[in-house]
Amino acid sequence: MTKLKLNKKSAKSTDTSAIFIFGFVMLWGVFTSPEVFIVPFIISLFVVCFLLYVKFKKHSALRKSNIEQIDIMNGVQFEEYLTELFKSLGYRVKNTPRSGDYGADLILRKNRQTIAVQAKRYKGRVGISAVQEIIGAQKYYNADDIWVVTNSYYSKSAINLGAVNNVRLIDREGLIKLSQRRLR
Question: 3-class SS at 55?
């Protein structure tokens, strides 16, 4: 199995729209002033291909992660993993801002349904506050359903509050089952 290389820093994913805009400008330059733009165009073409390759490899490695690799991820990497996992399961995924997210880390859409997801990569039990946060996010994001996903387990109070508020709590076993359903 491919080993996931985890970085200590949270590297922002390559913005493909910026790459394509840059490529378009360089291509336009080649056609308008080929003597000036041909060398920068060739260099930029190689850079674009390399960046797309790196992005593909990162997403591929995330999708192939197993629970032991998930356990050593930081919170941002766990959110990136869940983004790739839910995309492979057919959801359209929108990541919320890292801070000021109103209690949701991911917004999933599929079949006209909106789901707000709180991601908790924990070593101990996930407490009641995670459930409270996602309950608060439901109205803000106009979500039909709300989930908390963890690589761990939930406290008794989190389970009780989740049951009363129809929060889907996906624990370690549930995450493993979801991961096994992903596209290979």
Answer: helix
